[in-house]
Specification:
- This protein is α/β, with parallel strands linked by helices.
- It folds into two domains: 180 residues, Glycogen Phosphorylase B (Rossmann fold, 3-Layer(aba) Sandwich); 131 residues, Glycogen Phosphorylase B (Rossmann fold, 3-Layer(aba) Sandwich).
- The chain contains 14 helices and 14 strands.
- A six-stranded parallel beta sheet has the order 2-1-5-6-7-8, sandwiched between helices. Strands 11-10-9-12-13-14 form a six-stranded parallel beta sheet, with helices on both faces. It has a two-stranded antiparallel sheet with strand order 3-4.
- The longest helix has 20 residues.
- The chain is globular and about 65 Å long.
- The two termini are 16 Å apart.
């Protein structure tokens, strides 16, 4: 049984796309006969990230060497570019240990939009971080094209999935005279949520999620129903009860919530950005483009059964198989 070390700065109890992806990867790697071991902030001393109560920053990351040496993995995947990931990269580079990486977050655009940090500066760091990776895994064609144009090498596609046992259409959607539009996201500035809150449309607005801007947005937008975190059946009901799902983010690399909504039969309205443009099939499961309000309105007329049917290619089994194919050649080479 091949042992795979998954090294990440984002892990439970956080709730976000990276954690969802890695949790499902861990589960399906086990089903595929691998032995995945997760190294996360839970293995280090940490402090709470200012403004983000659910995110811990690791301190004594130099101890990553102990975790790598003690586990003696057949393969290493570094999932994030934070302190834990960077420490792992440096240790592997110095000791000539091969590893793969993944590009989950569009940090250059995010840091530029909200902190005015030049994108070129962040891309320079990210190119350095990923340059020795044997496989830089990206979720979409859009991100692959963008990074390739910026000089990133060894790019390989690793798409995402959805748990069809948890996200599925309810037998009968509850009908209402007034439309309902939904957004599921971390409630933070970088998610561009005010585009959703300010939509000039006669509909109930439901916001699911928590984050550093929750209280401020609650006070600023009293017409929006803020639900906080929802899980399991309650989250599935929220998706199914909506007439349209709104994804206003411009800086995500995929958007797992988009395919969760689609798997519930709820069409998605978004801007023309990486993630939505790779997932949304115009006129079938949603609309994307510069006019978010128009995209939402057009979603109301879509056939929910066709929306659901379009989701079936997004399985975690398929996602895991892509990951395995990306690392198997290197495992075989090292084992030879």
């Amino acid at each position: 049984m091949k042992k795979i070390l998954l090294i990440t700065d984002a892990w439970k109890p956080q709730t976000n796309g990276v954690v969802t992806t890695l949790t499902n990867l861990e589960t399906n790697l086990k089903k595929s006969g691998f032995d995945p071991i997760v190294i996360s902030p839970n293995n280090f001393k940490t402090f709470r990230c200012p403004g983000y109560k659910d995110i811990d920053i690791s301190l004594n990351v130099w101890q990553i060497s102990k975790h790598i040496d003690e586990n003696n993995p057949d393969y290493i995947h570094i999932a994030t570019e934070g302190p834990v990931g960077l420490a792992a990269k440096l240790y592997c580079d110095v000791n000539k240990i091969k590893y793969s990486t993944s590009y989950h977050t569009n940090f250059p655009e995010y840091l530029n939009n909200f902190f005015n940090i030049p994108t070129q500066l962040t891309y320079t760091f990210l190119k350095y971080f990923h340059k020795n990776s044997v496989s830089v895994m990206v979720a979409t064609d859009s991100i692959e094209k963008e990074l390739s144009l910026r000089g990133f090498k060894n790019l390989k596609k690793w798409s995402r999935g959805v748990d069809f046992n948890h996200f599925k259409p309810i037998v009968k959607k509850i009908q209402s005279e007034k439309k309902t539009i939904l957004c599921v996201s971390r409630v933070s500035k970088e998610k561009n949520l005010e585009e959703f809150f300010n939509l000039d449309i006669n509909a109930n607005k439901i916001m699911v999620g928590d984050g550093p801007m929750l209280n401020e947005y609650r006070n600023k937008y009293p017409d929006v129903d803020f639900k906080g975190f929802l899980y399991g059946e309650e989250l599935n009901k929220a998706y199914c009860s909506a007439d349209a799902f709104v994804f206003p983010s411009l800086t995500d690399t995929f958007g797992l919530v988009v395919i969760e909504s689609i798997s519930c039969g709820t069409p998605v309205a978004a801007f023309d950005a990486p993630g939505p443009r790779d997932i949304i099939e115009t006129g079938i499961n949603g609309y994307f483009g510069g006019d978010l309000c128009a995209n939402v309105t057009k979603c109301f007329s879509l056939d929910r059964s066709k929306v659901y049917e379009s989701s079936q290619k997004w399985s975690w089994e398929n996602s895991t198989n892509m990951f395995i194919q990306n690392i198997l050649p290197m495992i075989k080479k090292e084992a030879a």
